[in-house]
Design brief:
The protein is an alpha/beta fold. The protein is 40% helix and 20% strand. The chain has 2 domains: 33 residues; 45 residues.
Length: 101
């Protein structure tokens, strides 16, 4: 199972998805969970918490691309990583206007 989960800011997807991973673990299934936003911040330690959307769109796109490259690398070979969830946003409304995540 490979899933991409999106949702509005503030719906607390991360804790819900962590519970999904934990429940699967109690049933003998391993699910890996990737949080794209946290991965983007890890890729750019110079960015203050809560300020990542102030970056130029070109840098945001580069950070997102790097996060997804890491997810791809971390889930290979496919046979060893059959189940994972990607927690991300579909769009953002910020100073740039409404833009895709």
């Amino acid at each position: 199972m490979r899933a991409v989960v999106t949702g509005q800011i503030g719906v607390d997807k991360q804790s819900y998805l962590k519970n999904v991973v934990d429940i699967a673990g109690t049933r003998g299934e391993k699910i890996e969970l990737f949080h794209v936003g946290k991965m983007m911040y890890a890729e750019a330690p110079d960015i203050r918490p809560g300020r990542i959307l102030d970056l130029p769109l070109s840098r945001l796109n580069s950070l997102r691309r790097a996060a997804f490259k890491d997810i791809i690398a971390d889930t290979m070979p496919v046979e060893d990583h059959p189940n994972f969830i990607v927690n991300t946003h579909a769009t953002f409304r910020w100073r740039h206007g409404l833009f895709s995540a």
